[in-house]
Automatic annotation (TrEMBL):
Gene transcribed to yield this protein: tsaD
Name of a matching Pfam family: TsaD
Functional summary from the UniProt entry: Required for the formation of a threonylcarbamoyl group on adenosine at position 37 (t(6)A37) in tRNAs that read codons beginning with adenine. Is involved in the transfer of the threonylcarbamoyl moiety of threonylcarbamoyl-AMP (TC-AMP) to the N6 group of A37, together with TsaE and TsaB. TsaD likely plays a direct catalytic role in this reaction.
Segments crossing the lipid bilayer: none
The record's free-text note on cofactor binding: Binds 1 Fe(2+) ion per subunit.
InterPro entries xref list: ATPase_NBD, Gcp-like_dom, KAE1/TsaD, Peptidase_M22_CS, TsaD
Family of the protein in this entry: Belongs to the KAE1 / TsaD family.
UniProt cross-references to HAMAP family, sorted A to Z: TsaD (MF_01445)
Chain positions recorded as substrate binding sites: L136, V137, S138, G139, G140, D170, G183, D187, N282
Binding locations of Fe cation: H113, H117, D310
Domain Gcp-like: 26-316
Subcellular location: Cytoplasm
Main localisation: cytoplasm
Annotated protein name in UniProt: tRNA N6-adenosine threonylcarbamoyltransferase
Length: 341
């Protein structure tokens, strides 16, 4: 028998994602984003996101099937993000997945969004190294996780105590007059900038902070430092060197992220670091992590940028892994759980 065909649905935030995966092979990854509708608000508006998911769901499923050249009836299992995320947005995906599971008479697997960000890597680099240290950095979270078996869950070692890394990128971009979401714009601006132009603070890295928050992050102080610096520059009447500030800010974020990820891996005796989430698309983070980890004999895996941001393929990838490891499907009445750990 050929490997099972799994359809994955992701609606935890502002992307309606539908992916089709057979084993570790990606067949389709259709994403409809409502990001433009949120841009004028400077952040994701939950009600707008839910409505957009509702409108995009059926066309996105159809597009995925068309790309993969499969019919819905060929699907062997449905996987869906059950949390964490925006409650209303999750409910649209979970309802669609249940409808498909009932209509097709196929099992449904409710999966954890964070574990899916980890599992997606096997579509690109093959079987996951387990245990591995996963660093998930996105607009909603910044966590260091120990992953022993991705189908069972992820164990948090540390997380942000205030803003998520992506949120910091978005807020600083706004300060610099760059569009939302700001990460890709800062990434691009930073390539033309001087990363040692301003020595911005590295949150939770003092000896005292490390005692209590060794694997935690804090980015709100950094954001405030950038705001103060920009304000002072504007008051002086001199132009703000956007590229240099972007590069210096990005350097501070990447420095802390890579330092703590490597420290966590070493402490856990883990030789593989996997980076996921939207911020993993950052070119400086990828380069710095690879360089610093290699110096310590640690391997780094980062999926290609298109797989790092939210998508349905990651959910399908984790669903396929659950099928192949013989995990029990979820009940048909399993709830969307916005506060899933
Ligand atoms: O994982 P994701 O698509 O959605 C969730 O938040 O769950 O991540 C989106 C975040 C946004 O904050 C965006 O600014 C950031 O990822 N991002 C980046 C880059 N591309 C996306 N941040 C830094 N550099 C990038 N190249
Ligand atoms: Zn995400």
């Amino acid at each position: 028998m050929s490997e099972p065909l799994v359809l994955g649905i992701e609606t935890s935030c502002d992307e309606t994602g539908v992916g089709l995966v057979r084993g570790h092979t990606l067949l389709a990854d259709a994403v409809a984003s409502s990001v433009d509708e949120h841009a004028r608000f400077g952040g994701v508006v939950p009600e707008v996101a839910s409505r957009a998911h509702l409108e995009a769901m059926v066309p996105t499923i159809e597009r995925a099937c068309e790309t993969a050249g499969v019919r819905l009836h060929d699907v062997d299992a449905i996987a869906v993000t059950s949390g964490p995320g925006l409650a209303g947005a999750l409910m649209v995906g979970v309802a669609a997945a249940k409808a498909l599971a009932i209509g097709l008479g196929k099992p449904i697997y409710g999966v954890n969004h964070l574990a899916a960000h980890v599992a997606v890597d096997q579509l690109e680099h093959g079987p996951l190294p387990e245990p591995c240290l996963a660093m998930l950095v996105s607009g909603g979270h910044s966590s260091l996780l120990r992953v022993t078996d991705v189908t069972i869950g992820v164990d948090p070692l540390g997380a942000t105590i205030d803003d998520a890394a992506g949120e910091a990128f978005d807020k600083v971009a706004r300060l610099l007059g760059l569009p939302f979401p700001g990460g890709p714009h800062i990434d691009r601006a930073a390539r033309e900038g001087d990363s040692v132009y301003v020595d911005f603070p590295r949150g939770l890295t003092s000896r005292r902070d490390l005692e209590r928050h060794r694997f935690d992050f804090s980015f709100s102080g950094l954001k405030t430092a950038v705001a103060r610096w920009v304000e002072a520059r504007e008051r002086s009447g001199e132009p703000v060197p956007v590229n240099d500030v972007a590069a210096s800010f990005q350097e501070a974020v990447c420095d802390v992220l890579t330092r703590k990820a490597i420290d966590a891996a070493q402490t856990q005796g883990i030789e593989d670091i996997l980076i996921g989430g939207g911020v993993a698309a950052n070119s400086r983070l990828r380069a710095m992590a690879e360089e610093r980890a290699a110096a310590k004999g640690i391997r780094v895996r980062v999926p290609r940028p298109g797989l790092c941001t939210d998508n349905g393929a990651m959910v399908a990838a984790l669903g396929a892994e659950m099928v192949s490891r013989g995990r029990t499907p979820s009940a048909l009445d399993h709830p969307a759980d916005s506060s899933l750990p």
